[in-house]
Specification:
Strand content: under 5%
Radius of gyration: 16 Å
Distance between the termini: 37 Å
Largest sheet: none
Length: about 190
C-alpha cells in the first residue's frame, strides 16, 4: 500500500467521476424519479468499478467490444442526458413499477461509473498497484455517497431559478463531454 499512489488514484478518479459537477443532474433525476437511492446507486457504481478493475478488459473482449466502442456507447447516453437537461424533454422513461431505476441508469451507470471511469480504471492498472486503485475507488465512493445523500439539501439551498440555470449550463457541458468522448474514440473504431 502506497499513500502517494492512493492519493493520485483518488484525484484522477475524482476528476473523471466529477460528482460535484453532476449535482444538477442528480437533482434533476431526483425530481423526475421522486427520490434517489443513494446507497443503491453507490453500491452499483462501486460494484461496476471494482469488477471492471479486475475483469474489465476480459469482459469487453468476451463480448467482442473494444474500449473505444464502449466509450462511444457511454458518450451517446451522456449526450441524451445533456439534451434532456437543455430541452426539458424526457428521453429516459422511468418505469412506474421500478422507482429506483434512476438510481441505476443513468446515475450509477453511466454518470458515476461510465465509460470514462471504466477506461480510466483500465489505464490506472498499467501504472498503479491494484490495492491502491481499489482504495482510491472506495474513497471516491464514500464522497459520491455523501454528495448523493445531500442532494435534497443542496437543491433547497440553490432554489428553482439557480437550479434551472445550472441545469442548462451542465447540460451543455455534458453535451460537450459526450462529443469529446465520441470524437476521441470514433477514429479508432
Amino acid at each position: 500500500m502506497n499513500f502517494k499512489e492512493i492519493i493520485s488514484v483518488f484525484l484522477i478518479l475524482f476528476s473523471v467521476i466529477d460528482i460535484l459537477g453532476s449535482i444538477p443532474i442528480v437533482i434533476d433525476l431526483r425530481k423526475k424519479a421522486g427520490k434517489i437511492e443513494s446507497g443503491k446507486a453507490t453500491l452499483v457504481a462501486g460494484s461496476l468499478m471494482i469488477v471492471f478493475l479486475f475483469l474489465g478488459e476480459s469482459i469487453l473482449k468476451l463480448f467482442g467490444i473494444d474500449v473505444a466502442s464502449f466509450a462511444i456507447a457511454g458518450a451517446i447516453i451522456i449526450f441524451f442526458i445533456g439534451m434532456e437537461m437543455i430541452l426539458g424533454r424526457n428521453f429516459f422513461k422511468s418505469d412506474p413499477e421500478e422507482e429506483s431505476a434512476a438510481s441505476i441508469v443513468p446515475l450509477a451507470f453511466p454518470l458515476i461509473a461510465g465509460a470514462g471511469t471504466m477506461t480510466t480504471i483500465i489505464s490506472l492498472r498499467a501504472a498503479y498497484e491494484q490495492v491502491n486503485i481499489l482504495i482510491g475507488i472506495i474513497l471516491n465512493l464514500i464522497f459520491v455517497y455523501i454528495v448523493l445523500k445531500s442532494s435534497g439539501w443542496l437543491e433547497r439551498k440553490l432554489g428553482n431559478a439557480a437550479f434551472n440555470i445550472l441545469r442548462k449550463v451542465f447540460g451543455i457541458i455534458l453535451l460537450s463531454i459526450a462529443v469529446k468522448l465520441f470524437k476521441e474514440n470514433i477514429s479508432t473504431v
